[in-house]
């Protein structure tokens, strides 16, 4: 019996989990919820996940976990044929963990601060300058992380790439990656060429559709 993933395609964290599952050849039982109409706040979902977030994973034995980073680590540890996406090597894993924390605490937090008011609160103004500056700094950090490397945590792809590409491709809809970040632009193209990234492309398209009529990109 396949693990069940409660999800919404427009969500970057959901896409990160879907890419991870694809990379380890794991079939998931997909349960798409009506996130925009707040299905996640209904009693049946709150009983499963009091934080009412997606993605939420329910394994075949009933074990339930949420947060994309925790889910990706769990799936790789339990279902992957090897540890290449999240190596047991202490130093390699530490770098991946740092990138994952950077994604959750900086990148996705910034994306959420910009997108949530637009999607849920009816904000229709363009992105504020302080938010543009924050996104530009994120791009510059990643440009530095990728200096001399093909992937964000080194020379091999990892779950950190899946996590970051989901958010960066979404931020790029709002504020384009500048030409002064060639490492980042090349990394994004490498990610987009991966078969795992097809699910991300669908999600970015849905995310873009949510924003297109509500904000002007500058």
Q: What report would you give on this structure?
A:
By secondary structure, the protein is α+β, with helices and mostly antiparallel strands. Helix content is 55%, strand content 6%.
Kindly provide the radius of gyration, computed on alpha-carbon positions and rounded to a whole number of angstroms: 17 Å
Q: What's the average pLDDT?
A: 94
Assembly type: single chain
How would you write the strand order of the largest sheet? 2-1-3-4
Main structural class: alpha+beta
Helical stretch tally: 8
The helix content, as a percent range, equals 55-70%
Order of helices and strands: EHEHEEHHHHHH
Give the amount of beta strand, in percent: 5-15%
* Biggest beta sheet summary: 4 strands, mixed
DSSP E strands, number: 4
List the SSEs and their pairings.
Blueprint: E1 4-7, H1 12-23, E2 29-32, H2 43-48, E3 56-58, E4 64-66, H3 68-79, H4 90-120, H5 129-145, H6 159-174, H7 182-192, H8 198-212
Parallel strand pairs: 1-2
Antiparallel strand pairs: 1-3, 3-4
Helix pairs in contact: 1-3, 1-6, 1-8, 4-5, 4-6, 6-8
Spell out the key features of this protein.
218 residues; globular
